[in-house]
Design goal:
36% of the residues lie in helices and 22% in strands. It contains 18 helices and 20 strands. Helix 2 runs parallel beside helix 4, helix 3 packs across helix 4 and helix 11 runs parallel beside helix 13. The longest helix has 21 residues. The relative contact order is 0.10.
C-alpha cells in the first residue's frame, strides 16, 4: 500500500524573468514500510524535494499525497532530520528531545513523557550524555540527538536529508547501523537523501537517482536485491553489490557528464623557472648533493608529535617513519583523530615537530615554504578577489623573474586545466564549493611545488562533485608528476589516486599500521577501476584494516605489500 505519492510535481524558484524550474515532472510512489534512498548531485534539488515531502514548502504544480491526503504543512507523522542538526544550544540532550515530546504528546502524563524521552535517547546510545549541552557533544553525538528527537514523536515516516554527510567515516558507519536497527525494529517508512552510493546500497530497499538540473527529474529505480542484515565488509565481496554499485555509478557519471560542458584547454606553459626550483644552497653543499634524489626524496624519520594537556603530555603521533620516491603519490588513511592531518601539517611546516624529522629533497623541513603547496578541505580563498586573482597571488611571489605576461599564462593555464577557463574572472564569493576547490587545486599546482600536500581536499563535497574533481586532480598530476601526500578517509579515493596507501592506527600514539602498494595501471578512471579484477581485493585489504581498528586493534606494524594477485609490472604503470 502506498503511503506517499508525488504526481507530476514541479517546483520553481524566483519571480518573473528570473523564474527557473528546479524540479520537473516528479513522479514517486513509496510503499508503507519501504526504505528508499534518493541519490543526486549537489544543487540538483534534493533538499527542495525533501522539504515538499515534509510540508515545509509546497509544489507549484502537481500533488504530494501522504496516505492519500494532500500534504498541506509539517506534521509529526513525518519526522525530519536535516544535515545540520538545529539543536537548541541552551538545552541539554534531554531538553532537546523532551521539547518535541512535550509538544506532540501534551495529553500524556509527565511520567509517560519522561519515559518516552529517555527511551529514545537510550535508543541512540546517549543515556550517558543526558545532561550535556550541544556545545559539549561531538558532531556525531549531536546528530544522534536529532535522530532521537525525530523518532520520539513516533512518526509514521522518517525523512532523512543527508543526515550523515558532515560526519567522519567511523561515526557515519555507526549511525548507519543505528538507522538500520531503528528501521528494522518497527519497519516505519524511511526516505533517505544521500550522495553516497555505498550508503544507499547498505541501507535501502530501492535507490532512485535525482538527475541534475535545471529541471531536475527522477531517474530509473534500482532495486537493492541483497539480503539483510547487510555487513559493509562482507558486501565488498558480494557479486550483486559489485554489479549494482557499478551500474549506479556508471549511470550517475553518465548523466553528470551530459550535464556539464567540458572545455579542453590548449594553452602552453611559458618557459620560466620558479624560485622553488632555483639553486639556493651553499656551493659546497650543492657539489656534495649534485646527483638528483629519487628514492628517498621525502623522508619521515621517527616522527613524533605531542601536545601539553592538564594531565601531562599527550602523544598524538609517534614512530612515524616513511620514505617516498620522487613523483610518488601516497594516500594516508585512517579513522578520524588518528593523526593524519597532524602528519601533513608537520610536513607543511605549519605545526612544530616534537621528535624525529622530515627531509624533503635533501633539506630538513623547519617551517613553511613555497616549495610545499597545501590544499585544505576548505580552499581559503579571498572572497573579494576573482578566481584568477586568487591564483595570481602565489604565482607573482613564486615567479619573480617572469614577465607579467608569462605569469598570467601560468595562472590561466592551470585554471583552464581544472575547467575554470570560462569562470576565472568570477569573484570567489560567487563560486560553488566545487568551483572554489578547483581554484585551490589550480593555485597549488601553479606554484610548481616540490611537494603537494592534500588534506581531505574533497571532504566537504558531495560524492559526485568529488568524483569529478578526483578526475581533475589526476589529469593535472599526470602532467606534473609532483610528489604528493594526500590525507583521506575515503577508501575508494585512496585506491584511485595513490601508488601506495599508508594506513594509520588509531590515536593517541598513532603510527603506521600497514602499507599497501597499489599496482594498478595509470591513467586511472573510476569506471576502469570498478572493472579491474584486483580493485575489490585492495578495497578489502583497507576495509579490513579499518574494521579491526574500529574495534580497538593494537598496531602490528608492517610495510609489506599484502598478498594480492598482482598485475604484470609491465602494464602496472604506464607513462604519464
Amino acid at each position: 500500500m502506498a503511503i506517499l505519492e508525488m504526481k507530476d510535481v514541479r517546483k520553481f524558484n524566483g519571480e518573473g524573468d528570473q523564474r527557473a524550474e528546479v524540479l520537473s515532472d516528479i513522479d514517486l510512489t513509496v510503499e508503507e514500510g519501504e526504505f528508499v534512498a534518493i541519490v543526486g548531485f549537489s544543487g540538483s534539488g534534493k533538499t527542495t524535494l525533501m522539504s515538499m515531502l515534509a510540508g515545509l514548502t509546497k509544489a507549484d504544480e502537481g500533488q504530494v499525497l501522504f496516505k492519500g491526503q494532500p500534504v498541506a504543512g509539517p506534521s509529526p507523522a513525518r519526522g525530519l532530520v536535516f544535515q545540520n542538526y538545529s539543536l537548541m544550544p541552551w538545552l541539554t540532550v534531554y531538553g532537546n528531545v523532551a521539547l518535541a515530546v512535550d509538544t506532540v504528546f501534551r495529553a500524556e502524563s509527565r511520567i509517560d513523557r519522561d519515559t518516552r524521552t529517555r527511551r529514545f535517547i537510550k535508543l541512540v546510545g546517549l543515556s550517558h550524555a543526558l545532561d550535556r549541552k550541544p556545545s559539549e557533544l561531538s558532531g556525531g553525538m549531536r546528530q544522534r540527538v536529532a535522530v532521537a528527537r525525530a523518532l520520539a514523536v513516533s512518526p509514521e515516516m522518517l525523512l532523512l536529508d543527508e543526515p550523515l554527510s558532515a560526519l567522519d567515516a567511523l561515526t557515519r558507519a555507526k549511525l548507519q547501523d543505528e538507522i538500520v536497527s531503528i528501521w528494522e525494529a518497527d519497519r516505519r517508512t524511511v526516505i533517505l537523501i544521500t550522495n553516497d552510493v555505498d550508503e544507499a546500497i547498505l541501507l535501502a530497499d530501492r535507490i532512485i537517482p535525482l538527475n541534475p538540473g535545471p529541471r531536475a527529474t527522477l531517474g530509473p529505480s534500482f532495486k537493492v536485491d541483497i539480503a539483510r542484515p547487510r555487513d559493509r565488509l562482507a558486501l565488498n565481496g558480494d557479486p550483486t553489490f559489485k554489479e549494482l554499485r557499478a551500474t549506479i555509478t556508471d549511470y550517475l557519471m553518465r548523466v553528470g557528464g551530459d550535464a556539464k560542458n567540458e572545455i579542453e584547454n590548449t594553452r602552453q606553459l611559458p618557459n620560466v623557472v620558479p624560485i622553488t626550483q632555483r639553486e639556493a644552497l651553499p656551493s659546497a653543499y650543492a657539489r656534495a648533493a649534485a646527483s638528483p634524489i629519487e628514492n628517498r626524496y621525502l623522508e619521515f624519520s621517527d616522527l613524533k608529535k605531542t601536545y601539553p594537556t592538564r594531565q601531562g603530555l599527550l602523544t598524538v603521533v609517534e614512530n612515524f617513519t616513511l620514505k617516498m620516491r620522487k613523483g610518488e603519490f601516497v594516500s594516508l588513511i585512517g579513522h578520524s583523530g588518528c593523526g593524519k592531518s597532524t602528519v601533513l601539517s608537520m610536513a607543511a611546516g605549519l605545526s612544530p615537530i616534537t621528535g624525529g624529522g622530515i627531509v624533503l629533497n635533501g633539506r630538513e623541513i623547519a617551517g613553511p615554504g613555497p616549495e610545499r603547496a597545501v590544499v585544505f578541505q576548505a580552499p581559503s580563498l579571498m572572497p573579494w578577489l576573482t578566481a584568477r586573482e586568487n591564483v595570481a597571488l602565489g604565482v607573482d611571489k613564486v615567479y619573480p623573474r617572469a614577465i607579467p605576461a608569462e605569469r598570467r599564462e601560468i595562472v590561466e593555464y592551470y585554471l583552464g586545466r581544472v575547467g575554470l577557463e570560462q569562470s576565472m574572472h568570477k569573484l570567489a564569493s560567487d563560486l560553488s564549493n566545487g568551483m572554489k576547490q578547483r581554484v585551490g587545486i589550480a593555485r597549488a599546482f601553479a606554484l610548481s611545488p616540490k611537494l603537494l600536500l592534500l588534506d581531505e581536499p574533497f571532504g566537504m563535497l558531495d560524492s559526485l562533485t568529488r568524483w569529478d574533481l578526483q578526475e581533475v586532480l589526476m589529469e593535472v598530476w599526470k602532467r606534473t608528476q609532483v610528489t604528493t601526500l594526500c590525507v583521506t578517509h575515503d577508501v575508494d579515493e585512496a585506491i584511485l589516486l595513490a601508488d601506495r596507501i599508508v594506513m594509520m592506527t588509531n590515536g593517541p600514539r598513532a603510527t603506521i599500521g600497514k602499507i599497501i602498494d597499489v599496482d594498478l595501471p595509470r591513467p586511472r578512471t573510476r569506471k576502469a577501476l570498478l572493472e579491474h579484477p584486483n580493485y575489490y581485493a585492495y578495497r578489502q585489504e583497507v576495509l579490513t584494516f579499518l574494521e579491526e581498528y574500529e574495534h580497538g586493534a593494537k598496531p602490528s606494524i608492517s610495510s609489506a605489500t599484502p598478498a594480492i594477485e598482482k598485475i604484470a609490472s609491465s602494464s602496472a604503470k604506464t607513462a604519464a
